[in-house]
Design goal:
A hairpin with a 5-residue loop joins strand 3 and strand 4. This protein has about 180 residues and is an alpha/beta fold. It has one domain: Rossmann fold (3-Layer(aba) Sandwich), CATH 3.40.50. The chain starts with a strand and ends with a strand. About 35% of the residues are buried. About 30% of the residues lie in helices and about 35% in strands. The strands form 2 sheets. It has a 7-stranded mixed beta sheet with strand order 4-3-2-5-6-7-9, with helices on both faces. The protein has a two-stranded parallel ribbon with strand order 1-8. The structure holds guanosine-5',3'-tetraphosphate and magnesium ion (MG). The site of magnesium ion has 3 residues, from loops. Magnesium ion binds next to loops.
């Protein structure tokens, strides 16, 4: 199996288990912050279980001239972040913890707005050497699943969602594509 293929149903179940673990850890969320665009759909699913407002941020790895950059930069940020985040308990959501560079960057930027605390929840954490580090201010880090360092095909990237689901089911039937380690 060259890639993991997750269906919307898989993602929804993973989100539910993440929400349950956030609650079990006693973490109380005031505001969900979604990192776009991969974190948008997971954050909305999470709100079904943790009913808090969602703010969104966007970062990119290209500059104004569309040239790749090594480090992320903000392309969209919460307006009046200081007012929105000061003293609040943030739950930061993204789909995948890959190099961890984006996550580290976002946590550091959010910390600069003086939240009470910050927790990080990702659907999938790739087990690999990370370029970024989780800042020590992060009160809670949760990954829905720990996975091998392979590409993940998410349902929202599928041009043909039915073919995507069929391929995911076929992987599963052959015993492939079964993830992974509950984190
Ligand atoms: P990290 O801190 O969360 O580990 O993110 P990193 O900077 O390493 O990721 C760079 C981009 O690559 C991110 O997209 C991330 O979502 C995407 N990515 C990494 N691994 C995978 C994968 O296995 N499958 C898919 N589909 N994407 C992956 P981005 O620049 O934030 O763009 P967007 O797609 O979220 O808009
Ligand atoms: Mg992303």
């Amino acid at each position: 199996m060259d890639k993991y293929k997750f269906t919307y149903q898989d993602i929804h179940r993973t989100v539910r288990s993440l929400a349950e673990r956030v609650t079990a850890a006693g973490y109380e969320t005031d505001v969900i912050v979604a990192i776009g665009s991969g974190g948008f759909i997971p954050a909305r699913m999470l709100r079904t279980y943790i009913d808090r407002p969602i703010l969104t941020v966007g970062v990119a790895y290209y500059d104004k001239d569309n040239k790749p950059t090594k480090n992320p930069r903000k392309v969209q940020w919460i307006e009046e972040a200081e007012r929105e985040l000061k003293g609040r308990r943030i739950l930061l959501v993204d789909e995948v913890d890959d190099s961890r560079a984006t996550l580290e960057y976002c946590v550091r930027e959010l910390m600069s707005h003086g939240p009470a605390t910050i927790a990080v929840a990702v659907l999938h954490n790739k087990l690999k050497e990370k370029r970024g580090a989780m800042p020590k201010e992060v009160a809670l880090y949760l990954a829905g699943l720990d996975i091998e360092d392979k590409w993940v095909a998410y349902p929202w990237d599928a041009k043909d969602i039915d073919a995507h689901d069929v391929a995911a089911a076929a992987d599963r039937a052959t015993g492939h594509g079964a993830p992974v380690v509950a984190s």
